[in-house]
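Regression test case RT-17, inverse folding.

Input:
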């Protein structure tokens, strides 16, 4: 594919194994179920849920039971979603300047070295001393992909979703690795925002957001879990 401002991806290896390169911890998150405008993740099916996550889930369950009896279930979940959305948007804004710096540092001759940014994000996500490390890395990657593929030779029949899909299909699961390692509800919000941003940037016909989401959750995220084992 001819993409302005992007390195020839096939000159790089087909996969970035962050387990070997950065020692990223295993994620046991489950896939996100596909919906047209909103995503939601299924409940955990194994016994490896971290204690903190398990405690939060139990507290939420107890709150939900109480709210159901009092008729306030919708209000509670709506408030929680609003709170998490506010948190995620704040984190994206907080790490945006660094994301732009990383992109600039990996841009040479007008070409963005996406595999290089994948690796940089992998190192950042493996640094346990960094707060919200998966959100930091995801912000770098989301912004890099939007910037790079907005310069592709877009036309009806092939849009940004097509190009990002082709890139990830080559084994580049860096962004999916960030999603499966952060809290599921927060990953949902990030994914929805990422897809909405792309739809606003590119109105060419081609792969739909729903089609991209299906492969992200059914193919790329399972691959991501395998890569970080």
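Golden output:
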């Amino acid at each position: 594919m001819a993409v302005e401002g992007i390195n020839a991806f096939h000159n790089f290896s087909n996969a970035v194994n962050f387990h070997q390169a950065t020692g990223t911890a295993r994620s046991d998150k489950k896939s996100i179920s596909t919906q047209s405008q909103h995503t939601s993740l299924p409940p955990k099916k194994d016994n490896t849920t971290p204690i903190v996550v398990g405690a939060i889930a139990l507290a939420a369950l107890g709150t939900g039971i109480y709210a159901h009896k009092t008729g306030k279930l919708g209000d509670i979940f709506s408030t929680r979603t609003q709170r998490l959305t506010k948190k995620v948007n704040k984190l994206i804004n907080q790490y945006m300047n660094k994301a732009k710096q990383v992109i600039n540092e990996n841009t040479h001759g007008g070409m963005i070295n996406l595999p290089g940014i994948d690796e940089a994000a992998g190192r950042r996500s493996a640094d346990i001393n960094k707060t919200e490390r998966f959100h930091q890395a995801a912000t770098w990657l989301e912004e890099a992909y939007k910037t790079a593929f907005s310069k592709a030779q877009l036309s009806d029949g092939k849009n940004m979703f097509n190009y990002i899909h082709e890139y990830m299909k080559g084994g580049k699961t860096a962004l999916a690795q960030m999603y499966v390692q952060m809290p599921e509800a927060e990953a949902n919000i990030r994914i929805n925002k990422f897809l909405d941003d792309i739809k606003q940037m590119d109105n060419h016909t081609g792969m739909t957001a729903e089609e991209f989401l299906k492969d992200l959750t059914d193919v790329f995220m399972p691959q991501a879990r395998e890569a970080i084992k």
